[in-house]
Design goal:
The structure holds 4 protein chains of 4 kinds. Chain A has helices at 47-55, 82-89, 100-103, 110-123, 132-145, 151-154, 164-177, 194-211, 222-226, 246-251, 256-264, 302-306; strands at residues 3-16, 19-32, 36-40, 63-72, 75-76, 93-96, 182-186, 214-219, 231-236, 239-245, 312-313, 321-322. By secondary structure, chain A is of the alpha/beta class. Chain A has a single domain (3-327), classed as P-loop containing nucleotide triphosphate hydrolases (Rossmann fold). In chain A, strand 11 (312-313) and strand 12 form a beta hairpin. In chain A, helix 4 packs across helix 5 (132-145) and helix 7 runs parallel beside helix 8 (194-211). Chain C has a domain at 91-292: MetI-like fold (Orthogonal Bundle). Chain C has helices at residues 2-29, 34-39, 45-54, 61-73, 87-122, 127-141, 144-158, 182-188, 192-229, 232-239, 244-262, 264-282, 287-296, 300-328, 330-338. By secondary structure, chain D is mainly alpha-helical. Chain D has helices at residues 2-25, 28-45, 47-50, 85-120, 125-138, 142-153, 157-183, 187-194, 199-236, 247-255, 263-294. Chain D is elongated, with a radius of gyration of 23 Å. The two termini of chain D are 33 Å apart. In chain D, 51% of the residues are buried. The chains are: A alpha/beta, B alpha+beta, C mainly alpha, D mainly alpha. At the C-D interface, helix 1, helix 6, helix 7, helix 12 and helix 13 of C face helix 5, helix 6, helix 9, helix 10 and helix 11 of D.
Chain lengths: 329, 538, 339, 295
């Protein structure tokens, strides 16, 4: 499988008044062509920053990419010229954002926004310009694809007139209208109720499958990624802590953090209310030395305070890697 | 395609600007004249000298003043007191005088205009007194007065007959019975005259435009090869002096006929090229002292002010422009005498003496000095006096209300400030103007007599002068009148100065100086040298 | 929307009524004799008395107000004591000049204020941002008359770039009146020379008027652009391939315009009161200079009319602002129509 | 016990002051504004000692020295009757600051009290009366109405102050009104009501302290604005009467001498800009200070 996107040792810092936040602390990640990858971690662990870095939409300043590479089809995105990046955005990479209300411009109609998205993304590929009628037809088609009822009427609506699910469908349509090779979905269903969540996720995966795109599905919940992805990355405080095939990970979580995450998923079988994980995400201004998880870890060893664990192969597969000294062999 | 469309706008803008700049800038035969706000170009209601300036262009007075201070025939060819009585005059009119609509000016128009002036009681009706007019024939009019008036012909330089038919066509409902408003509303924005220029438009307080009247009865002639009559007049108003100077320098303004520049500016004008000063008529700075309100109701207090003022200080600043010691009447008029203090300078000792005689304690009184807003020369006198009176321990309050308010204050004794300053030019050519209008008990109050001092004796003396046929005897009376008036200190007189109008060198005014206001800016007396204008400003 | 406008209208009627009562009351109660002021010093007591009766100045206050209100309903605002013309005639003569001035300065401040605001917001903390902030601080702090005088000194006296006074050069013939806007009328009449002159003349006064608003609008726009730049939708638009200029001047500008437009009513008030001073400095023959003149001349009828006209204009502008804001912001529009 | 409370309160207030000052001083422009403002105030207070020719602020003429350009003897030059413009500007600050102080100390308390009452007694006749009158005053720009009123009262500094004060209270009234209407349902107000506190106590001790921050910020910004309006009125000729120096009057007089004697208009105009600028900078600093506090 050829890697489509390859992140190597990505480091991102945010400058604030009090100092520098070391938010991404050497992130590594690979997404293959047509692969469905999950990325899971607590809120604030750097998932969104990773996505924004890939898309080159991090606000700089205050953010600063202080090291690493992001290779897209082997070319470093971080070294690309703005024009190249723009052309990447048209048809190569796209994203769906966490809060559909925030991701839609409140003062333009859905149709207007969708119109521009289709217009510009289609204009890029040296094709003939689409006529107004064609764009409109495509808008409706794209909306219909996402299972949007009454899509023609929706075009003249403003985001606030829509329900949460409908808004997310609009966002998905926007993201999909460019027929991107890589779709990064950043917690696309967080703000929706459970039934709609499932519905939207199903439709999303169907659409991606149809287009044979790769997808990076980001969530703070393991449950969401379980059914939809082939491989999962677990992220903690700016580091990847574990990566494995989805079923391997669920079967045999190795990192203490992953284990804790899995435990905190509420289960229908009813083992009481989950405990969650002790403590909080660390302060990025002065993150803990060594393994960033050590202050919260039940299995803390002296070395954890001093050294940052590298990836160790663990479990049954070579593809299962863990950044924890517990797994050092 | 898109790109082309984007450039189209740019090309269009460039094109328009190019087109605009192509429009030629040929020198125009026009005179832009700055005056004070002309609200009332109607000669029946015009009452200030700037109204009069405009009136002289649009209308023709019955009699015209000469530069020598005498009179010459104008619309009236001849005038005589009937039976040697000074209250019954007969006027013979010129024939063939044309109004702007082509109609001829006849006795009927004169009678109508006099009736109108008397009925409305505005404008210079007070100067003329009560007059009854009757037409004897088409060109002969009799005017009967209430009282004998030896200077009646002089006052008729302020009487401009209107076109009766035209006025009657445009009357609107008003207070004057069958005559409605006597055409007052219409005449604010039109003219019904026979003057050298015809009004084209008038926006009160802002702009008045007039064009040359080809059929003016005195005719038009060029003075030199390039000196031709001015075709178009534009009166503008209420401009700041800094702006006026800029307009003069850039050649946008041809004649500054307000004279409100500061002496700094006058100095600049003297040095500047292409513009020059015209001394147009003599004027008297007069600071009225209200004799009805404390503390200036005390003659000693008034004398103290008279002595305390430092005459030399301000006057010296204006000396280069012809400033000189002033008296009760203009110094060029027959019978002028110098008044105290003599010699004319500050005398603090005398002032203290007088103050000691007065019933007021300088520490306890405040004297109020008002001047017309924006007139620096008037403010200067106030500031000077303020500094001078401070030496006596008297507090002087200065304020500069705008003209209408300022002049209206003088309408009643209790609203008139202690001191008010005015610059008086003669409106008709006789010492009588200063004496009768300013000191006759019948005329007490108002800007011309804001001292509010009514003295029957002075009145009788003035009346006597008015009924005296012999000129020398009259002049004698004028002298004794001045002495009498000076002893009461109804005013003090900072200095006399010719009115200074600034004009472009290519605009040539009359060679002589008229003693009164109107004729100087009668543009019939001016010519424009277009060749020079082209050279200087084209 | 209609319901909303009607309720605003009723509210404003009350306010205008109160305003007229207030100004009428102040005018009548204050010392000074308007009749005397109007007729000047040469008028006789009899004339003054007649005039008082004619103007109902001898009647008690409520009666005077009643007469005034009655003639107002006939569209008659009385006669100006200063120009001796009906006040309505004066207003008709002078309002277009001021409207033209304010309109041009409004366009100036909108364009310059928005562009600098957007750029400063986008490049915030750059040298451009710093410079524009400094200038905007000074711009807000400089009273209009001082701006006018600095401009006059610099552009006219020093550089000789722009004419100093009036709407046209003094000897110029104004274009035939159609709208009362000289520039527009000149273009309609095909006199491009006059139009250019009009533009030259209007430039400095309009710029002097615009300075404070440019500063204010620039600041507000900068803040809201900077705020909106952080919003997810900007990132989303970027990611979906919408070009940067389109994001900046379309997708960002519109929401960022909302706070700017919302304060436009207040900005208009500033502009109108600043016009009082700017028109004086530049001798602009407009409504504001007329207003100052009649006020200085204690011209009762004209003062009341002038204040009311300003009140009405202020009200209209606020309604327009509300409409524009609700056009820009569907949230407000939907709230209003949706009930 | 009581003493301890007092000490605690004091140290708390000292802490919050230093925290506030820290936030304020983060913006160097605000600090600059504060420095300028203090120097202006001090200059105005000690004008007779600081100005080189204090007598030039009053009845004084010296025509021989009129219209002198700026020099070491006359920093800003002299005016048309020979008075030192620098001295007059310093004294001019006095009138500007007095105007701001008087107007705000008249307008602010009355506006605040009316706003408190109207906001507290919502939907009663007293609210309707107060707020409708406020609407009337706010229906035209303050300069316009202040101009009309000053003219009719006859122009001088006192009347100018009265007229501007009359224009200013509605702004505070509206501000405090909106604050009060939102505060009056807060728990601490409810609590006070339930414990039977008097209306005066509720308004002045519970609600008013919570209005301080916005009112104070507005006041600082307004001081500059009041000075602008005052200078504008004097520019038209409706302010401080001669010979006393009003900054606006000086600009108007100087404008007549442009461009040759430019210093007569330019320096007083710059003086106005500087004082307004300093008020605005300080006001912005205060706003930042309080705004951060609220978050």
């Amino acid at each position: 499988m050829t890697p489509l996107l390859e992140i190597k040792n990505l480091q991102v810092r945010f400058k604030i008044y009090e100092g520098e936040l070391k938010v991404l602390n050497g992130v590594d990640m690979v997404i293959g062509e047509g692969e469905k990858v999950g990325l899971v971690g607590e809120t604030g662990c750097g998932k969104t920053t990773t996505v924004k870095s890939v898309l080159r939409v991090l606000p700089t300043p205050p953010a600063r990419i202080s090291g690493g590479e992001i290779l897209y089809r082997g070319k470093d995105i971080l070294k690309m010229k703005p024009a190249q990046i723009r052309s990447l955005r048209k048809g190569e990479m796209s994203a769906i954002f966490q809060d559909p209300l925030a991701a839609l411009n409140p003062v333009f109609t859905v149709g207007h926004q969708l119109y521009d998205v289709i217009k510009y993304s289609s204009a890029s590929r040296g094709r003939k310009r689409l006529s107004k009628k064609e764009i409109r037809a495509r808008s409706i088609a794209v909306l219909k694809e996402t299972g949007m009822p009454d899509s023609e009427r929706i075009l003249s609506n403003y985001p606030i007139q829509l329900s949460g699910g409908m808004r997310q469908r609009v966002c998905i349509s926007e993201a999909l209208s460019a027929s991107a090779r890589l779709l990064m979905a950043d917690e696309p269903t967080t703000n929706l109720d459970v039934t709609i969540q499932a519905q939207i996720l199903r439709q999303l995966s169907e659409l991606v499958a149809k287009k044979k795109s790769s997808i990076l599905l980001i969530s703070h919940s393991l449950g969401v990624v379980r059914n939809l992805t082939e491989r999962v990355y677990i992220m903690y405080a700016g580091n990847m802590v574990e990566v494995a095939r989805t079923k391997d990970l669920f079967a045999d979580p190795l990192h203490p953090y992953t284990k804790a995450l899995l435990k905190s998923v509420p289960k229908l079988t009813g083992e009481g209310i989950s405990r969650g994980i002790r403590g909080r995400i660390p302060n990025y201004l002065n993150p803990p030395a060594g393994c960033r998880f050590h202050p919260r870890c039940d299995h803390m060893m002296p070395i954890c305070e001093k050294e940052r664990p590298a990836f160790f192969t663990g479990g049954d597969s070579d593809n299962h890697k863990v950044a924890c000294f517990l797994c050092r062999r | 395609m898109v790109k082309k469309r984007r450039y189209l706008g740019l090309i269009l803008v460039v094109l328009i600007i190019g087109l605009c700049s192509l429009v030629g800038v040929a020198v125009e035969n026009v005179a832009v004249i700055n005056g004070m706000p002309v609200i009332l170009p109607d000669p029946g209601v015009a009452m200030d000298w700037y109204d009069t300036q405009v009136a002289y262009n649009l209308y023709s007075p019955l009699i015209y003043p000469t530069p020598e201070g005498t009179l010459r025939p104008h619309i009236a060819l001849d005038w005589q007191p009937v039976d040697g009585k000074l209250d019954y005059w007969r006027f013979t009119l010129r024939s063939g005088v044309k109004f702007h609509d082509g109609g001829e000016l006849t006795a009927e128009d004169v009678v109508f205009s006099m009736d109108r002036l008397m009925a409305m009681g505005k404008g210079y009706s007070g100067t003329l007194g009560k007059v009854t007019a009757s037409a004897v024939s088409k060109y002969v009019v009799d005017l009967t007065l209430e009282k004998p008036n030896a200077v009646f012909p002089e006052t008729l330089t302020l009487f401009w007959p209107l076109n009766k038919d035209l006025v009657l066509e445009h009357i609107q409902p008003g207070d004057y019975g069958e005559f409605g408003d006597y055409g007052e509303a219409w005449l604010a924005e039109h003219d019904a005259g026979s003057g050298p220029y015809t009004m084209v438009s008038h926006s009160p307080g802002d702009r008045l435009e007039a064009v040359r009247f080809e059929d003016y009865f005195l005719g038009w002639e060029s003075w030199g090869p390039d000196e031709v009559p001015v075709e178009r007049l534009i009166f503008i108003m209420e401009y700041q002096t800094a702006t006026l100077m800029l307009l003069l320098r850039s050649g946008q303004l041809d004649l500054e006929a307000n004279g409100g520049f500061s002496r700094g500016t006058f100095k600049e004008i003297v040095k500047a090229e292409g513009i020059h000063l015209n001394k147009v008529w003599p004027e008297d700075w007069t600071v009225w002292i209200n004799t009805t309100v404390p503390p200036t109701d005390d003659v000693h207090f008034r004398k103290a002010i008279q002595y305390a003022y430092d005459y030399q200080s301000v006057q010296a600043e204006y000396a280069p422009f012809g400033a000189r010691e002033a008296g009760i009447i203009a110094s060029s008029l027959p019978g002028y005498i110098a008044i105290p203090p003599q010699p004319r300078r500050q005398n603090l000792e005398k002032a203290r003496e007088e103050l000691a005689l007065s019933k007021y304690d300088p520490e306890e009184v405040t004297v109020v000095y008002h001047y017309c807003a924006g007139l620096e020369a008037e403010e200067e006198v106030g500031l000077q006096l303020q500094a001078d009176l401070a030496k006596l321990g008297i507090k002087l309050e200065i304020a500069g209300p705008p003209w209408p308010q300022y002049s209206a204050e003088c309408g009643a004794p209790d609203t008139t400030p202690n001191l008010t300053i005015f610059l008086f030019p003669a409106t008709y050519p006789s010492p009588d103007f200063y004496l009768y209008y300013m000191y006759h008990p019948d005329n007490v109050g108002g800007i011309y007599a804001a001292h509010w001092y009514a003295d029957e004796e002075i009145g009788e003396l003035i009346d006597r002068s008015r009924s005296t046929v012999d000129f020398e005897a009259r002049v004698d009376i004028y002298r004794s009148l001045q002495e009498k008036i000076a002893s009461q200190v109804l005013a003090f007189y900072p200095y006399e100065i010719p009115m200074l109008f600034t004009s472009q060198d290519y605009l040539i005014g009359p060679k002589e100086t008229f003693p009164t206001v109107g004729p100087s800016v009668n543009m019939h007396n001016w010519r424009i040298n277009l060749k020079l204008k082209q050279e200087l400003r084209g | 929307m209609a319901k909303y406008i009607i309720s605003r209208l009723l509210q404003s009627l009350f306010v205008l009524f109160g305003l007229s009562l207030l100004i009428f009351f102040i005018a009548r109660v204050m010392p000074g004799d308007p009749a005397r002021v109007a007729l000047g010093s040469l008028a006789t007591h009899e004339q003054v008395q007649n005039f008082r009766e004619e103007m109902h100045l001898d009647k008690p206050f409520p009666v005077q107000y009643y007469f005034w209100l009655r003639s107002l309903l006939r569209g008659d605002l009385g006669k100006s004591l200063y120009t001796r013309r009906p006040v309505t005639t004066d207003l008709k003569a002078y309002i277009p000049a001021t409207l033209e001035l304010i309109l041009i300065s409004f366009i100036m401040s909108l364009v310059i204020g928005q562009v600098t605001g957007v750029l400063a917001g986008y490049f915030r903390n750059s040298w451009f941002d710093g410079l524009s902030r400094l200038i905007s601080y000074i711009g807000v702090a400089t009273p209009a008359f001082a701006v006018a005088i600095f401009f006059l000194l610099f552009f006219t006296y020093t550089l000789n770039l722009a004419p100093a006074v009036g709407r046209l050069s003094l000897a110029a013939v104004p274009p035939p009146r159609i709208t009362g806007f000289f520039i527009l009328d000149s273009v309609i009449a095909g006199k491009f020379g006059t139009a250019l002159e009009g533009l030259k003349h209007i430039f400095l006064p309009a710029a002097s008027l615009a300075v404070a608003n440019i500063a204010q609008e620039g600041r507000i726009t900068r803040t809201s652009i900077a705020e909106n730049l952080q919003k997810d939708y900007v990132i989303a638009h970027t990611v979906y391939g919408i070009p940067r200029w389109s994001i900046l001047f379309k997708y960002l500008l519109r929401p960022s315009l909302i706070p700017t437009v919302s304060v436009m009513g207040l900005a208009f008030a500033y502009q109108l009161s600043n016009a009082f001073l700017v028109e004086l400095v530049f001798m602009w023959p407009g409504f504001s200079r007329y207003a100052v003149t009649v006020m200085l001349n204690k011209d009762l009828n004209a003062i009341v009319a002038v204040v009311l006209v300003i009140g009405v204009a202020f009200f209209l502008v606020n309604v327009i602002v509300d409409i524009v804001v609700s056009f820009l912001d569907p949230r407000i529009r939907l709230q209003r129509t949706g009930g | 016990m009581k003493k301890e409370l007092l000490v605690a309160a004091l140290s708390r207030s000292r802490a919050s002051f230093s925290k506030g000052w820290y936030k304020f001083s983060r913006n160097p422009l605000s600090v600059l504004g504060l420095i300028i403002l203090f120097s202006v105030i001090l200059t105005a207070i000690f004008a007779p000692y600081i100005s080189p020719y204090p007598e030039h602020a009053g009845a004084f003429t010296n025509f021989r020295e009129s219209g002198l350009p700026p020099s070491l003897t006359h920093f800003f030059g002299t005016d048309s009757v020979g008075r030192d413009i620098f001295s007059r500007v310093i004294f001019g600050y006095r009138f500007s600051l007095v105007l701001a102080v008087v107007v705000l100390s008249l307008a602010m308390p009355s506006g605040i009290i009316l706003g408190l009452i109207a906001g507290y007694y919502r939907r009663r006749w007293i609210e309707i009366v107060i707020m409708r009158i406020t609407d009337i005053f706010l229906a035209v720009p303050p300069l316009v109405l202040a101009l009309a009123i000053t003219v009719m009262l006859s122009p001088n500094l006192f009347n100018q102050m009265m007229a501007i004060s009359l224009m200013w209270w509605p702004w505070y009234c509206r501000l405090v009104y909106s604050l009060t209407t939102s505060l009056r349902h807060e728990y601490f107000v409810r609590e006070a009501e339930l414990t039977g506190a008097s209306k005066a106590h509720i308004l002045l001790r519970e609600i008013l302290p919570n209005c301080v921050a916005p009112v104070l910020t507005k006041m600082t910004l307004d001081a500059g604005f009041v000075i602008t309006v005052g200078a504008s009125l004097s520019f038209i000729g409706l302010g401080v009467q001669p010979p006393r120096p009003g900054l606006g009057t000086m600009v108007a007089d100087g404008a007549k001498r442009l461009p040759a004697e430019w210093w007569m208009a330019v320096f007083p105009a710059l003086a106005i800009v500087i004082v307004i600028l300093s008020f605005n900078l300080v006001g912005d600093g205060l706003r930042d200070m309080f705004a951060v506090e609220e978050v």
